[in-house]
Amino acid sequence: MRARLRGHVLGAFLTLRFRAPAARPRGLAGRFAARHRSASWGFFLILLHIIARGKIGRSPEGELVDRYAKRLTWPVRLTEWPDTGAGKVAEPLTPHRTVLLDERGKAMSSEAFATLLGRWRDEGVRETRFMLGAADGHSDSDRASADLLLAFGPATWPHLMARAMLMEQLYRATTILAGHPYHRA
Q1: Would 14 be classed as within a structural domain?
Q2: Structural domain includes residue 132
Q3: pLDDT tens for each residue of 104-153
Q4: Which of 72, 118, 122, 176 has the smallest CB count inside 10 Å?
Q5: What total of structural domains would you count in the chain?
């Protein structure tokens, strides 16, 4: 009996361990889908792409950004552009949303922000780009083409602080959606 049970367990292990991989799409889309699919819920997670002007370097704000980037369970990408001139970034995954951090934007509560990210996730959005502009802000054409103008209240914040605050709010929003006790409302 014991030998037969051991053989059954070993057979099940070998079947699970060495079975052929399931077919999935090829190319960049397939690699992204394979890496960022939530196994327990069956939906895709949004790539949170932060595009900011200026280098954060080794600073306390940079350490905060790194700390929250490591904590995030959703895929995150940080892109830094020079203070002036055009920056280069790959084409976004489609469908995507663009969020501009702007002083004229809408101030949202953490719960409302989490609800918005959850709705975009459920609608199948693959990438959300968060754009932090230069010292003189965004152009009118950029504001008109954005899906959301977001502000962290009526105060003006330094770029490095705004980047750290954005990362914290993204972490908070994802924990709210996951039901994690980080956000105590």
Answers
A1: no
A2: yes
A3: 889 999 999 999 999 999 999 999 999 987 777 777 888 888 999 999 88
A4: 122
A5: 1
